[in-house]
Amino acid sequence: MRVLALLDGTLADPDAPQIRVDDLGLMRGDGVFETVLVVDGKPRELGPHLDRLARSAALLDLPEPDRAAFERTVSLVVDNWTGGREIALKLIYTRGVEGGDGTATGFTLGMDISAKVRAQRADGLAAITLDRGIEPGLAERAPWLLLGAKSLSYAVNMAALREAERRGAAEVVFTTSSGSVLEGPTSTLVLARDRDLVTPPSTLGILPGTTQAALFRSATREGWTVKVAPIAVDELHAADGVFLVSSVRKITRVHTLDGKPLPDSADLHARLVELYEAEY
Ligand SMILES: Cc1ncc(COP(=O)(O)O)c(C=O)c1O
Description:
By secondary structure, the protein is an alpha+beta fold. 31% of the residues lie in helices and 27% in strands. It has helices at 24-28, 46-59, 67-79, 115-123, 138-141, 155-166, 210-221, 233-238, 266-277, and strands spanning 2-6, 11-12, 31-39, 42-43, 86-94, 105-111, 125-131, 171-175, 188-193, 196-199, 225-228, 241-246, 250-257, 260-261. The two termini are 24 Å apart. Keywords: Aminotransferase, Transferase.
């Protein structure tokens, strides 16, 4: 099932053409997006997602997204959804049409969560590490690379996932060229050691995750130690658990990394899922 709401506050047919062929989002991937999870009619972390949409737009020198208009599209999709308990909402915001008056294109599309993602939430997945070719300091030194912006240019991220599939895995952990852990193509990495949770710093040029933030908030309340610190690839193999977390995949366990089984983290996974769900 799919429901589409346009930024002007109208519903539209998701099966009909809505985007002009000269939209710069389409022609150059020149735009930004967010993916928001809705459960039982309630969007999760909507405020942080809209904050991040605005931050990404600013990094791309796009006009500031109309927050109230995006909130209205979210309500429209949620109110008109007649499908299952969960919705993946894609909020899209592009530079508009080539040679136009600068009016941005914006819409929110509600979709089902794929069976593949739901299976991975339950069973975990195998991941491989892949070099992302970036080094600490690059994000500040070269802001035009848009590291840490959630831009529509995700072709590299999708290519990395296809590379993982070619190598018999389902997911990717990006690393710097010197072997420091970054993030997944569409997820944040969280490592667990005893009652410590660690995630790499966004200053490395990665996206600050709303799911990781929610998990850390809850874990802190329950007396866990949470840290934002660099992680070397070797540390992943020695950890009690490695997780890829995102709005749509929630908390997903990595059971195999680069072909090597990681320690069984099924119980730890259940505990982290509890912590995450306690936020809602
Ligand atoms: C590159 C990247 N990192 C991390 C995340 C996780 O972010 P969130 O937890 O806010 O969904 C995403 C989400 O799609 C992403 O694309």
